[in-house]
Amino acid sequence: MAAVTRPRRARGARESLASVVLGFESIVVFLGGLVVYGLGALPDSIPDAWGIAAGSILAVVMILTVGVLRHPWGIGLGWALQLVVALGAILVPALGIVALVFGGMYAYATIKGGELDRRNAARAADATNGD
Fold it and tell me: For the chain, what is the total number of helices (H) and then of strands (E)?
């Protein structure tokens, strides 16, 4: 008996671009956690291993967020994660550069991707009304 497969859900440009940014950023965030550990950037009262734990958890949350980007709250969650990365610059100033680069890419992905999705929807509506 052959398995019945559902057709894949169409993903918009905003969702696709944002997922690529978060996917790559998750790798950099994990490496940032290793940097926090290696530099001993945490206060003395917090064990340095928490740097690795925080970087790993944040990277996993970013990967999980890719699965919910189809929802408006998923895009908002991605923005919240960008803020968390930016706050990491308090511990390691170089993470500020990471926040600027990936925050800019995430902004472009969500803003320009949304514009592309609206334009494609308008073209599809024109094509169906023109027949």
Answer: 4, 0
* Closest among 24, 16, 22, 14 to 80, alpha carbons compared: 22
**Residue carrying structure tokens 């990936």:** 102
Q: What is the pLDDT of residue 36?
A: 93
Q: How far is 88 from 80, CA to CA, in rounded Å?
A: 13
How would you classify residue 73: left for phi > 0, otherwise alpha for psi between -120 and 50, otherwise beta?
A: alpha
pTM for this prediction? 0.86
Report the alpha-carbon distance of residue 54 to residue 61 in Å, rounded. Answer: 10
Q: Cα separation of 88 and 33, whole Å?
A: 9
Q: Which residues of the chain have pLDDT under 50?
A: none
**What's the pLDDT at 121?**
87
The tokens describing 87, both together, are: 């706050």
> How many C-beta atoms lie closer than 10 Å to residue 58's C-beta?
20
User: How far, in Å, are 14, 74, 76, 122, 123 from residue 116 at the CA level?
Assistant: 8, 18, 19, 10, 10
